[in-house]
Structures are given as C-alpha cells and as structure tokens.
TrEMBL record:
Source organism (scientific name): Chryseobacterium pennipullorum
Sorted UniProt keywords: Cell membrane, Membrane, Symport, Transmembrane, Transmembrane helix, Transport
Compartment annotation: Cell membrane
Membrane topology (UniProt): Multi-pass membrane protein
The protein, known as: Dicarboxylate/amino acid:cation symporter
Length: 416
C-alpha cells in the first residue's frame, strides 16, 4: 500500500504542476502555446499508448480463462444475466438523472454562450451521419480477430473471447487445460506489466493537463462556469445514487473498495480515459476479493455496455443544446429520446468521442440543430474528465455487486 500511496501523491503533484505550467505558458508565452501543447501532450500519449498496448491481450486472455474455468454454462448465463440487468438499470438511472436535472437547472436558458464556429463540429457531424444499424453490427462482430486486436476493438474481442471461452469450457479438461493454463500465465504476466506502466501515469497526467490549460487558459472555465457547475452537480447526484446502491450491496466494504480505486479514478479523471485504468482495475478488484473469473467476464462487458457517466451526459447535453436554441420538448419526446439513447449508445465504446457522436445523431432525429454540438466542444475535455471517472466507478461497483450476488466475494487478498 505504501507504493500505491506514493503513486497517488505523485499523480496529485503532477496534476497541480500541469495546471501551473499550462497556465504560465498561456499567460506569459501565448505565441508558444500551440507548439508547447503539441509537445508536452506527448507525455500523455506515451502513457495512453502503453496502456492500450496491453488492453487487447489482457481482455482476451482474462475473459477466455474466466469463462473456460467456469465450465458450467448455466453459471455463465446466470452471471451474464445479472451483469446485463445491472447495466440496463444503471444506464436508465443515469439517463433519467441527466434528464431530470437538465430540465430543473436549465443551463441552456440561463447561460449566454457565444455561438461557436460550427466548422469545429464538421468532422463529428460526418461521423454521426454515417452511423447506422449496419455500422453497429460491424462494430460488434469481428471480421478478423487480428483486425480487432490491431485496432483495439474491445467489444469485438469480447464477442470472440466469449465464444472461444464457451467452446473451451465444453471441450473437456483433457483438451482445454493446457490452453487455459497458457492463457492464465499470459494474463498474470500482463498484469505484472501493469505495475510498471502505472508509474508512467504521473507524467501522462502532467502532459495531458498542461496541454489543455496552455491552449485554452482559465477563461474557458469562466465562460462555461454554469454549464460545468450544473453538469458536475448532476454527476455528483449520480455518484451519490451509485454509492448508496453499492453500500446496500457491499456494506462497509464499500469504503475499502473506494480506497483501492482512488488512483484509477484520478488517472481516469486526469487523462479522460477509462480504458487507461482497465488493467489496474482488474488487479485491484481481484485484490479486493472479487472472483477472478467474474472480474474477467464482467469488466470487459462493462466497458462496452455500462458507461454510466457517458449515459448521463448524453441526455444532459442533448437537452442543453435544445434549450440553447429555444426548442421546447414535451415530456413524451424527452422520454422517447432517453429510450433512443439507451439503445443507440450500447456497444460503441470503441468509437472516438462516442458520446458526442451519439448526441449529434440523436439531435438530428429530434429536430435539434446538430451543429449545436460546437457549443460544447470547447469544454468537452473537462466534461469527459468527469464522465471517464464515473464510468470507472460504475464498472467497479457492477463487478463487485455481481461477485457478491454470486457468493464469490472473499476477504481481501492483501491488507490495506
């Protein structure tokens, strides 16, 4: 735990230094802000790429081993059903909280935002127009496992790994045992790499934060203060709901769990990447006492189907854009929008800026000018910080809850 505390402190220091360095460059050397930003954010790029390097093999090996070791197909179905029930319930709650609070707080009515140049949203608009049911199916079902590995398509890897794991489970121990043992050793080797890679996290945090502040300065916080205030208030409400549910299920062990995931939460917040902490989450959840088979089965699924922070943001941002343009939506229309978002958002976690793509597509469907996405693009990075951290919390609680329901939550493997 001493090493973990050191890492946590190092990340906090890097966060403060990043804001300070970025602020100095923005104020004192504005003409150098762009090149400085491009150079220093390479630190963040190095960290993210190191993590991305191990995500595909880690998801594949842990998921195959987890399912193959279950051997009981009924158990796989039971665990999967419980996980999907949690995912659907959490998604609906997240969407409803966003819907209720954006209607109550009305940030689009009280905020006078400058109309942004819509050219900044052109690429996003093109992405949303091409999104269809056909694209969704292609995004979910792999054409080639090697292509899925090469492009880090987590959902496609999950689909193949589940099918392969079920096949191994039904093959008989004589044939499957050597393969399962090999993948188990590989998974543990990759998890060992996680410890080394996490020490790059402070540099990644410093680079990512310094780049954003150097480019945008502190003014962006003033211009969008009300929107950010209301959004993070809504996130706080979602956190309270998730933690209350978590406490009912886990009891006092919830506090132990939160201590263990403080670094993953901070890294996700600083780098706006929930993927960046996936390997660390696997490690911490197993140390917490969650069954390794359940962890390796549910956590990858959660990264595709259980993005609570992103779900809440979708309703919040969609209605916000409608408010900015003075478009009044009936309760019926808003409920319909919520259900549309519920369906269209599943399984697109691998799409860059997936939440924004879905928001644009939904706005077009309901007669809201999709160009309005340009209004929130300048601060999407800051909103994404909150979204990513909330996604990590939601997936942590989902995995822990299902482990508890399955009677597979043991005492911690180490002492905190």
């Amino acid at each position: 735990m001493k090493g973990q505390n050191k890492l946590f402190i190092a990340i906090i220091i890097a966060l403060i230094l990043g804001v300070g360095i970025g602020g100095v460059v923005h104020v004192k050397y504005p003409e150098s802000a762009a090149p400085f930003s491009n150079n220093i954010k390479l630190l963040g790029t190095v960290f993210i790429r190191l993590v991305q390097m191990i995500i595909a093999p880690l998801v594949f090996t842990t998921l195959v081993v987890g399912i193959a070791k279950m051997s009981d197909i009924k158990m796989i179905g039971r665990v999967g059903t419980k996980a999907m029930l949690w995912f659907i319930s959490a998604s609906l709650i997240s969407l409803f909280i966003g819907l209720i609070l954006v209607n109550w707080l009305e940030p689009g009515h009280v905020t006078k935002l400058p109309i942004q140049d819509v050219s900044s949203a052109e690429e996003l608009l093109k992405s949303s127009k091409s999104f269809s049911l056909e694209d969704f199916v292609k995004h979910m079902i792999p054409k080639s496992l090697f292509e899925a590995f090469a492009t880090n398509e987590v959902l496609q890897i999950v689909v193949f790994a589940i099918m392969f794991g079920v096949a191994l489970a039904n093959l008989g121990e004589e044939y499957s045992k050597p393969v399962v043992k090999l993948f188990d050793i590989m998974a543990h080797g990759i998890l060992k790499m996680v410890g080394y890679i996490m020490w790059f996290a402070p540099l990644g945090v410093l680079g990512a934060i310094a780049a954003v502040v150097a480019t945008n300065g502190f003014e962006i916080f003033k211009v969008y203060a009300i929107y950010l205030r209301d959004f993070f208030f809504a996130l706080a409400v979602l956190w309270v709901v998730l933690l209350i549910v978590g406490y009912f299920i886990l009891g006092n062990r919830l506090f132990d769990l939160m201590k263990r995931i403080k670094e993953p939460l901070l890294i996700a917040f600083s780098t706006t990447s929930s993927e960046a902490v996936f390997p660390k989450l696997v490690e911490e959840l197993e140390k917490f006492g969650c069954n390794s088979r359940v962890v390796s089965f549910i956590l990858p699924l959660g990264y595709s189907f259980n993005l609570d922070g992103s779900m809440m943001y979708m309703t919040f941002a969609s209605i916000f854009i409608a408010q900015i343009y003075g478009i009044e939506m009936t309760i019926g229309q808003q409920i319909t929008m919520l259900l549309v978002l519920m369906l269209t958002s599943k399984g697109i976690a691998g799409v860059p800026r997936a939440s924004l793509v879905i928001i644009v597509a939904t706005c077009s469907m309901f007669g809201i000018p999709p160009e309005g996405i340009a209004l929130i693009l300048p601060i999407d990075h800051f909103c994404d910080m909150g979204r990513s951290m909330t996604n990590v919390l939601g997936n942590t609680l989902a995995t822990s809850a299902v482990s508890k329901w399955e009677g597979q939550l043991t005492e911690p493997l180490d002492k905190i």
